[in-house]
Design brief:
8 helices, 2 domains, 5-stranded antiparallel β-sheet, alpha+beta, Arc Repressor Mutant, subunit A, Jelly Rolls, 27% strand
């Protein structure tokens, strides 16, 4: 992790990502951080100390079971709020957030601005929307069928815009299987004419 002390870049990121529209107060002390691939983001930025906003890169969120094994909950990219559930509940999370690619985040130190955020209706609406989307995503994961073939079809139907899988890598990570396993299933589905191959690493429901 590296902190970048560059107010112009912070201002540009806030504007370009649309994040500035999620706050009433535009003088909040945002901090800019970059991460390399494979870092555990919330080891460096504890949700009790900071609320973070992923701007660039891909991350995966995993739950750690009682036996210590990880269970992947979600793969995220683009503007994503990290620490929203902890901010709202005050409850410790056993999730880990791992960067799958180099990533860029903005963060707010809660010691300095928690009271401001708790009284900002614009920010609270943003947090409510963020948490609701995560709950919907987790519900979809729980209801996903157990067989890999059925899970692939469910994933394409429910989580791929237009029913088109656009990245075998991201899909394999979301489905907790290898790319080879996924490609084998997709090949079978193409043979059955349930799915069509639309381009490199791209498949669409028929």
């Amino acid at each position: 992790m590296q902190r970048i002390h560059d107010t112009k870049r912070i201002t540009a990121y806030l504007k370009d990502s649309g994040l500035s529209a999620c706050f009433s107060d535009h003088s909040l002390p945002f901090e800019l951080y970059t991460f390399t691939r494979g870092e555990i983001l919330n080891n460096s930025l504890d949700p009790y100390d900071h609320i973070c906003f992923l701007l660039e890169g891909d991350i995966r969120i995993c739950h750690i079971r009682d036996d210590g094994t990880p269970f992947e909950i979600a793969v995220c990219s683009g503007l994503t709020c990290l620490g929203d559930i902890e901010f709202a509940s005050g409850v410790f999370s056993s999730h880990i957030i791992e960067t799958m690619t180099p990533a860029v985040c903005l963060a707010l130190p809660l010691a300095q601005c928690r009271s401001v955020l708790e009284n900002d209706p614009v920010f609270l609406r943003f947090i409510l929307h963020s948490i609701a989307n995560k709950m919907i995503g987790m519900s979809n994961m729980i209801s996903m069928p157990s067989g890999l073939r059925e899970r692939v079809l469910y994933y394409m139907r429910m989580q791929c815009p237009g029913g088109e899988l656009r990245s075998v890598l991201k899909a394999s990570q979301a489905l907790a299987c290898s790319q080879r396993q996924l490609l084998r299933i997709l090949k079978d589905l193409c043979r059955e004419k349930a799915v069509e191959h639309t381009g490199h690493g791209r498949y669409r429901l028929v």
